[in-house]
Design goal:
heterodimer, A: mainly beta, four-stranded antiparallel sheet, 0% helix, B: mainly beta, five-stranded mixed sheet, globular
Chain lengths: 114, 109
């Protein structure tokens, strides 16, 4: 069964450093998403991406964040200058098309900012 | 923006049916009800969705009341691996999924 994969599984970085989280969505999916979950809190939407541009973004997704689909398979989330409060699980998801909410999530990347 | 209300936690005996309720009294006519679950710290997993009619798949059944103000997710024979947080989500405008606190289901031997 096709699945969303994410690398690395755990990333430790120092405050102020840039990090790139990587995702490989399911191959025939067209919509891509990033969510995050701070330990013990709710899963929060960050951004959706379609046709090589951001479709929607939340208030969390400020200028420190960016997304990119650098090639036909990868989807990345970059945090330019990490803060302590960016420590969280980051989940990538994908869905077949617009308006379809059967989103398939990856296993997540645990980001720890020290 | 329809909101959902779910019990914080529930217990279920292994092998028995788990019935997870959800209230969504402000749901609009074209909004779907989706259920996801999250096992430990894994990524959320899609379970089932519906609009008006009851739905069933290999994982679960979804019962939606006639007035659509509430629904119940049914796991017919719960196993220990079904221990998870279950989220009832009503689609709102846009493509994001808005997760609430969910119901923490504990399946006990």
């Amino acid at each position: 069964e096709p699945e969303v994969t994410q690398t690395p599984s755990h990333q430790v970085t120092q405050m102020g450093q840039e990090v790139i989280l990587r995702c490989v969505p399911i191959s025939n999916h067209l919509y891509f998403y990033w969510y995050r979950q701070i330990l013990g809190q709710k899963v929060e939407f960050l951004v959706s991406f379609y046709n090589n541009e951001i479709s929607e973004k939340s208030e969390i997704f400020d200028d420190q964040f960016s997304v990119e689909r650098p090639d036909g398979s990868n989807f990345t989330l970059k945090i330019r200058s990490t803060k302590l409060e960016d420590s969280a699980m980051y989940f990538c998801a994908s869905s077949e098309d617009r308006g379809i909410h059967e989103q398939y999530f990856g296993p997540g990347t645990r980001l720890t900012v020290t | 923006d329809a909101k959902t209300t779910q019990p914080t936690s529930m217990d279920c005996a292994e092998g028995r049916a788990a019935n997870l309720p959800c209230n969504h009294s402000t749901i609009s006519g074209n909004e779907y009800v989706y259920w996801y679950r999250q096992i430990h710290s894994q990524g959320p997993q899609y379970i089932i969705h519906g609009l008006k009619n009851n739905e069933t798949n290999e994982m679960a059944s979804l019962i939606i009341t006639e007035d659509r103000k509430s629904s119940t997710l049914i796991l017919p024979h719960a196993t220990l691996r079904d221990t998870a947080v279950y989220y009832c989500i009503v689609y709102n405008a846009g493509n994001m999924l808005t997760f609430g606190g969910g119901t923490r289901l504990m399946v006990k031997p």
